[in-house]
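Section 3.1: Structural characterization of target chains.
Under the original work plan, the team committed to producing a structural model for every single-chain target entering the pipeline before any wet-lab resources were allocated. The record below documents one such target. The sequence was received from the expression subgroup and is listed exactly as submitted; it comprises 360 residues.
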Amino acid sequence: MSRRVFVHIGLPKTGTSYLQAIAWPGRDRLREAGLLLPGARKSDHLLSSLVVRDDPGIARRGPGAAGAWDRVRADVAGWSGDALVSHEFFCAASPEQAARMVEQLAHAEVHVVITAREPLGLFTSSWQESLKNKSTTPLADYGRGESDDPRAVWDWRSLDLGLVLDRWAPTVPPERLHVLTPPPPGSPREVLWERFAGVLGIDPATCDASRGFANASMGVVEAETLRRVNERLTGFDTARARGVWLRSFLADERLVPRQGEPFWPADDQVADARARGERAVERLRAASYDVVGDLDLLRVPEDLPPRRHPDSVTDAEVAEVAVDLVAVLMGDLKRRGDRTRQPGGPPSRLTRLRQALRGT
């Protein structure tokens, strides 16, 4: 059985994808170094988070999805070194679900790892991520409460570090709860991986940190354009479809590169985020958790540069982005058609469509 199990529970939008993009390609090297990433593949950790949180959506994830947590636990039980389970949606678990998860791993010494971030930046990033998952909620209406539903991952339930600590801190002794603050502004992005590796007790050089990537943000007009596109979309109802087409193809690859203007939520939402950050910092100062980094970086800065609100975006601005987007998509379609058309081979789907339209 494993010696220690590190359960990395998020928070969402705190570099979790970056860390996972380093760890999973280095899985074999981590294993040689004594750290196991259990399960058949990376998606088993996402699926395990659904099982742990009793999310009925697991039934739509295909054959074998419901057994992901059992596979992860079996691998952990059969391993004599340390193990890492990592997905940001674990943080939304209820106190009972969190305690049950830790109990199911309790043949080993369980550690909980939380990557954190100041809540205003976290709030705006999470709204963008919700848009990439087909949400149509305007920023003005986003984050206006705290859900009691463990399935609610784009909500203060999983974004407020204090609320997450309320549910997860009782599951392990305080010295086994590790909170990683963000690296100082201007630091190399590898600093986060180095801190994470330090908590896990491995040499950061075990994995190639250049494989990691940082999620970039859409500008204010681009984000509002995607929100309005979502209002017109039909289909794209599976997690895979949203991930491939909305998040990657449309948002990350075509809207983010426009490098639009950053934005803030309304003043009352800024004040709410600031208060949540202050409460979390005061709690951490009063506790004996293992904090890695500067707690002051979990506070919302007092002086914020002026930025627009998405409500200020005009129809003309959305139209300009939409027209540019159509032009880009037409170029994508042409290049794809050119690649699939081979001399002497069967006609591509695009060629067949053209022929049908011409009646040939």
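The chain is about 45% helix and 5% strand.
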